[in-house]
Design brief:
The chain is built from 8 helices and 2 strands; from the N terminus they run αααββααααα. A hairpin with a 6-residue loop joins strand 1 and strand 2. The chain has 3 domains: 59 residues; 32 residues, no CATH class; 130 residues. Strands 1-2 form a two-stranded antiparallel ribbon.
């Protein structure tokens, strides 16, 4: 199969879904290049199934990880208490959440350092530099994604809502139809995928611990809807 078709398939199914418009464009392209449309569609569906399985496994692993981390210790009696809890249900002791320092402002400050270095490279060689410099730009994108992925999740209600308010708009993964240039789209999706996963990770944990806080829970669900979470 033509590499051009393979690239289109890979980009279209990156998020585990494919629209009818995306499917139609891939099949039209296949026909134009002399490929068997039925064979291409069979490969497309097979690749889509595989990536859905990978995403499902990843979500299950993330869910299990969140369950393991959901409990804190009461400083007074040592009992297990859910994250975001301000009062121990066993002894009534106060749980101090002020130690939460995982502010998105700190994360953005870390990213700004990398972006400053990236900006110097772009100002010197431009986005459309040689492949050598494009590799460097790609490395910057991966570095930013790693910073986002490993940044500690916020704990307090206020910082969770602040984090999601600023992070969810950054979590949009661009499809093959949203940005004309493939390189630009791929670079965007490296960091947007990291933001997407981080937001979903925080929402999964917050859903569990904020069920009794109706107002906050509704806000969390609004962000979940923007990320197409069920």
């Amino acid at each position: 199969m033509q590499p051009e078709i393979e690239n289109l398939i890979r980009l279209a199914i990156a998020d585990g879904e494919i629209t009818e418009k995306e499917r139609s464009i891939i099949l039209r392209k296949a026909e134009k290049l002399g490929e068997d449309k039925d064979e291409v569609e069979l490969i497309l569906d097979g690749e889509l199934t595989l990536i859905k399985k990978d995403l499902q496994i990843e979500q299950q692993n993330q869910s299990e990880s969140n369950k393991k981390e959901i409990l804190n210790k009461c400083p007074s009696c040592g009992a297990n208490v859910a994250s975001f809890t301000t009062k121990c249900s066993i002894c009534g002791g106060k749980i101090n959440l002020n130690k939460d320092s995982s502010s998105i402002k700190e994360l953005l400050a870390e990213l700004a350092i990398v972006e400053k270095e990236e900006g110097k490279l772009l100002s010197e060689y431009g986005f459309w530099g040689s492949s050598h410099f494009l590799e460097k730009i790609n490395a910057f994108a991966n570095k930013k994604a790693a910073i986002i992925s490993f940044f500690p999740d916020p704990v307090s209600k206020e910082k969770i809502l602040e984090f999601l308010a600023k992070a969810v708009p950054k979590a949009e993964i661009k499809s093959v139809f949203q940005i004309f240039d493939g390189t630009e789209r791929n670079l965007h999706n490296i960091t947007s995928t990291a933001w997407n996963k981080k937001c979903k990770e925080i929402i999964i944990t917050a859903r569990f611990s904020m069920q009794d806080d109706k107002k906050t829970f509704e806000k969390i669900e609004t962000y979940a809807k923007q990320l197409s979470m069920k």
